[in-house]
Amino acid sequence: MKPVTLQDIADQLGISVTTVSKALKDYPDVSAKTKALVKELATTLNYKPNAFAVNLRTKESKTVGLIIPVIVHHFFSNVIKGIIAEAEAKGYLVIILQSNERYDMEKKHLDLLMNQRVDGIMISLANDTVDFKHLNDVIAADKPMIMFDKIAKTVNCSKVIIDDRQAAYDATQHLIDIGCQRIAHFRGSLLPQNSIDRFLGYRKALRDNDIPYDASLVYICECDDLSFEEGQNNARQLLLDHNDVDGIFINTDLVAIGAISEFNKQGIKIPEQISIVGFSNWFMSSIISPSLTTIDQPGLEMGRSVFKQLYKEIQQLKRDEKVDYQQIVLPTQLIQRDSTLKVK
Predict the structure, then answer these.
(1) Do 35 and 109 sit in the same domain of this protein?
(2) Can you list the residues of the chain whose pLDDT is less than 70?
(3) pTM of the shown model
(4) Contact 8, 45 (CB under 8 A)
(5) What is the CATH number of the domain that holds 285?
(6) Is 92 a member of any domain?
(7) What is the C-alpha to C-alpha distance for residues 221 and 273, in angstroms, rounded to an integer?
(8) Whole domain around residue 108: which residue ranges?
(9) 26: helix, coil or strand?
(10) Are residues 79 and 98 in the same domain?
(11) DSSP assignment of 151-175
(12) What integer pLDDT is reported at residue 342 of this predicted model?
């Protein structure tokens, strides 16, 4: 069925298109009787405003784009919830795209969002993104863009992050405080900034406590999704390589849960023989046995902060104001559960 237009309403009522438009917008120079007639007929005919025409007139699409590495991830699912909650409150639709941790897909999605003329973009980078031209092109086009979680420090835009280095330091320090001296680290791949910062936080905690750094105790998770299986495999390899490790700081909870599964299978007592700290505070962390001590990463709050900053910059551009870039650092905390010994 052909969409109903303002002209259709005007023809049926014998008035001008301008009068119909003004009536629907409650202009004061249109009589209450005419407004009532127009609105009643618009409802009867199921009239819907032409979104494309509205966008052209207001120079707004009321849509924003979100690019994340993976959707099926507890942390990112919470980020999405936070973004959508804030976006809906402001009347925005969120287009969600997944890069699958691939630079080429991330670049393709960014081009798509720019072609769709979204009002702004939120992005967490893919693991293999090392060329930032596509990001700088967005900024050069005066399109508001907020980076979060996995960011590029050299790209000049607003960012919402946690202090990954301090959080990793706190996780490692906790292991030291409960008496661990041989502390391994299951880290993410080499490129993402948050993986780098967590590794550096781990090293700094060792150094500050006069514990020698041993590169053989660092195991790299090569898979992009930091999987349960990698936790199992690294735990198995650790037992073959070292029989004196008494603590492990693991880059994300899913890998930590895989490691706990493997240690349970091999009869390694947690935390009596090995204490484990994860990162993110997934739901599964509290129900696995033993429950996982972890760093709480505030995904929902991050999502809310990301959209709030994006909305602020959209409004600044509408008013032809200089955009005020911000780096928003959200707090984290260590949640102690049964996978680590109690602090003496």
Answers:
(1) no
(2) 1, 50-59, 72, 223-226, 344
(3) 0.82
(4) yes
(5) 3.40.50.2300
(6) yes
(7) 23
(8) 60-162+299-332
(9) coil
(10) yes
(11) --TTS-SEEEEE-HHHHHHHHHHHH
(12) 86
**How many folded domains does the chain comprise?**
3
At residue 59, the pLDDT reads 64
Quick one: which of 324, 309, 311 has its CA closest to 63? 311
Report pLDDT for 108.
97
Q: Rounded to whole angstroms, how far apart are CA atoms 283 and 241?
A: 31
User: CB of 171 within 8 A of CB of 277?
Assistant: yes
Whether 157 and 181 map to the same domain: the answer is no
**Alpha carbon distance 58, 62 (integer Å):** 10
Does 155 share its domain with 43?
no
User: Could you tell me if 297 and 281 are in contact, meaning their C-beta atoms sit under 8 angstroms apart?
Assistant: yes
pLDDT per residue as tens digits for the range 84-99: 999 999 999 999 999 9
On whether the CB atoms of residues 66 and 87 are closer than 8 A, the answer is no
pLDDT digits (tens, 9 = 90+) for 18-27: 898 888 888 8
Residues 248 and 284 reside in one and the same domain:
yes
Helix axes 164-177, 193-208, angle to 10 degrees: 40
In this prediction, residue 191 carries a pLDDT of 79
Q: Which residue has the tokens 């899913």?
A: 254
pLDDT at residue number 53? 57
DSSP-based three-state secondary structure for 123? strand
